[in-house]
Amino acid sequence: MDETAGIYAREAPFLDRDVLVGIASGRVISLSFPNDSPPDAGQTHDILDQIDAYLEGEPVSFREIEVALTMATEHRDVLERLRSVPYGEAVTVQELARMTPGLDPDNDDDRGVIRTALADNPVPLLVPDHRVRDGPSTAPPAVEQKLRSIEGLA
């Protein structure tokens, strides 16, 4: 991955939005889908190229991209486990709890931990919260549905 820090953005016509990526110390710290990007955002980055390929239907996993998940350990653990869900597959909140050490899939509080982690996901798509059928996504609803449709999850 390019080690350059900064904000990078590119128009994503399929999403009817832009894709905005924030990078620090060679790790992605944020990813969002704004209607308009800052005019000073860079437009050239290998992560944006990978996202373009994904949006064109290539089964890109994004697992090799380093992300910085600065949050409570239990939430980070959930999001790291979610990264292992393969392209084109979906899980439920309960299944994600089962995949995450220390969480009981039958416990309401533990399922709440999963939902909170998903709702606080700073890098949707790279941590594919759109693959959780019954959980929240930090991507806008229309974007979430388009990501699901790309992978045949709609």
Give a verbal description of the structure.
The chain has a domain at 73-138: Arc Repressor Mutant, subunit A (Orthogonal Bundle). The protein has a three-stranded antiparallel sheet, with helices on one face. With 154 residues, it is an alpha+beta fold. The chain contains five helices and three strands.
In short:
The chain is α+β, with helices and mostly antiparallel strands and 154 residues long.
Could you give the topology of this structure?
Blueprint: E1 6-12, E2 17-24, E3 27-32, H1 46-55, H2 73-82, H3 93-99, H4 108-119, H5 141-150
Helix pairs in contact: 2-4, 3-4
Give a count of the beta strands, DSSP E runs of length 2 or more. 3
Question: What coarse outline follows from CA principal-axis ratios?
Answer: globular
Terminal CA distance reads: 31 Å
CATH top-level class of one domain: Mainly Alpha
Q: What is the string of SSEs from the N terminus onward?
A: EEEHHHHH
Observed structural traits:
3 strands, 154 residues, Arc Repressor Mutant, subunit A, globular, alpha+beta, 32% helix
